[in-house]
Amino acid sequence: LVLRERATHVSELRQALIQAESAQRGYLLTQDQRYLQPLKDAAARAEKAFVDLRASSLADREALKHSVDIVTLGSRKLDETRLTVTQAEQGRLDLAMALLKAGFGVQLMEELVARCNAFELQQLGALGTKQQAISDSLLQQRVGVGLVVLINLVFLAVLANMMIRQFTLREQHRADLEQQAAQLERAVAERTEELS
Description:
Blueprint: H1 2-30, H2 36-57, H3 61-89, H4 93-101, H5 104-195
Helix pairs in contact: 1-2, 1-3, 1-5, 2-3, 3-4, 3-5
């Protein structure tokens, strides 16, 4: 669950920063104030994703290291986005465009996307490994239960066979006793006839 949460937070972060960058460029190209609200919304979602990503990574040292790297890059990208928009709002559009054309934001975004993708794949891979381990464990448990059931069935079959054999032996002993009793009665009857 934590692995899936981390992957989700990374995906949310990446999407929010892509939307922020898109709003930044829209504003710088058009000077249209309508681009500022989507920028603010995307920045707020990115900052929430920063917090959520860090919080979900606290228990895992390796994940925390990657999360901090991603959050640091994301913060730098947001700062660059806000700086260029602020410059344009203050009437220094040439400076904002020069910053944009310098490519620093693009480099940050490319590195951020690459790290987010790698971390997300690593988290999903670890999740797949854990799910496979759980599946293997469940399969082993099913096999174990199957073996116990099989052993119980074999035991019951052996027990039933022994009971049938015991019953057959009793019936045979009873038949033998009846036959001996009948022979004894005939012998007594014959002897009684001889004596009379």
